[in-house]
Amino acid sequence: MATDTSSSRPTIIFVHGTNSSALLGAGLITELTLRGHRAVAIDLPGHGAEVVYPKAYRSPQDLEALATEPSAVAGITVDDYVARTIGVVRRAAAMGPVILVGASQGGVTLSRVGNAVPELIDRIVYTAAYCCVDLRSLTDYLGTEENSDSLLSKITDAAVGDPRQLGVARINWLTSDPTLFAGIKDCLAATFTDAEARRLVTLLEPDEPASIPLSDARGRADTWGRIPRSYVRFNLDRLIPPALQDRFIREADALTPDNPTDVHTVDLPHVGPFEHPDLVDILEHLAERTAAPTGC
């Protein structure tokens, strides 16, 4: 009798970061699928298929109006992100093992989901992502010594409006200012060509709820800490410096010494690209390790 392996293969679920969508992981999902894996990328609430661009953001831009135009995502919270992700995790877990992968701010969602439903996740993978342990929130880590080399300020230089009034961090990715564009490229994608970087910024979304980076995102030892954990260091990251990525790993290992982090390193900037063969190879290896035993 033929062996049924459908329920043995893990589902790899990709959670995007700030000002982004499932499009960031589209190449990764395609490559994993072509290699025979089950994989999906989530659009977090208000992103991707649900995005509502401010009218003043599109050509022709009106920066004065953009600074005050209300945002459709201002009221979205981290709990909404977590609920959306748990819904996908539950459906995937009904079919077999689950590997939850997150990029950048997606790490906030990963840790919160790990706290909520550890029994449904077989491995959690941070890819150059925030992994809060000792400090409460993503924002708390921005002032640390390990983050001192971050070029995040080159992104905030392109910000428009007051987050306290808008309820969102609003970035003008489509800026025509060559200095601002160069700063965005340096921070996110220094190894990209200008053409590749311009294609990238057209995929990014201007608004991100301002509350997400301030949310409590600490992984708890008794829940999140039970899940096998991997961290993929992006060695060329200039938004989350390698030193800060290493701090996340150290803190996690100190919290759960019996469940140390499985660490990998790739020579990629902050936004990958995530379909890079080295990263796909790592996730494929983790999927093979996570696959459930099969029977006839």
Automatic annotation (TrEMBL):
Top-rank taxon: Bacteria
TM ranges: none
Keywords, comma-separated and alphabetical: Hydrolase
Keyword presence, Transcription regulation: no
Entry-linked Gene3D superfamilies: alpha/beta hydrolase
All residue ranges annotated as the AB hydrolase-1 domain in the record: 12-280
Any one GO MF annotation of this record: hydrolase activity
InterPro entries associated with the record: AB_hydrolase_1, AB_hydrolase_fold, Sec-Metab_Biosynth_Hydrolase
Keyword set includes 4Fe-4S: no
Protein name per the record: Alpha/beta hydrolase family protein
Lineage: Bacteria, Bacillati, Actinomycetota, Actinomycetes, Propionibacteriales
